[in-house]
Amino acid sequence: MTVRDHAIDRDALTLTFVAEFTAPVERVWQVWADPRQLERWWGPPEWPATFTRHELEPGGEMRYVMTGPDGETSAGWWRMTDVDAPHRLAFDDGFADADGNPVPDMPVTHAEARLEDAGEGTTRMTLVSTFPSLEALDELAQMGMVEGMSSAMAQIDALLAEG
């Protein structure tokens, strides 16, 4: 099982996922650093992502579109706030319109991913999303963020198995 745990902390306004992968930290980092690998797991299996912009550096931006089973789309953006390869990346995460521009009336979360050696050739990835308010946390949780991220992260094992 990839995702070992997830927790919603309503006091801290966070949603945390902890996953472990049978691969070294440097290899797991590549699923973030390579846009072709990132789009194979960012988003639930029935909503694959296409990254149209990928700047993995502080101040860099990411743009992506997820496409649903009936052809509907949902776009997003990231603004990288910190990158410390291969152990840490942090970014602001929001919804985008069809042109990739941030949607101002949707919540923006701050995400931080940490990768650490868990021993015996495994890597523990902890992904913490911090919400601007309890209302935003509840809104995104009701939109299926917990289930969506769990199913998205479950795709990483198959990607890592390819080498």
Automatic annotation (TrEMBL):
It holds the Pfam family AHSA1. CDD domains: SRPBCC_CalC_Aha1-like. SUPFAM superfamilies: Bet v1-like. Belongs to the AHA1 family. It comes from the Bacteria. InterPro entries: ASHA1/2-like_C, START-like_dom_sf. Residues 23-160 form the Activator of Hsp90 ATPase homologue 1/2-like C-terminal domain. This is Activator of HSP90 ATPase 1 family protein. Gene3D superfamilies: 3.30.530.20.
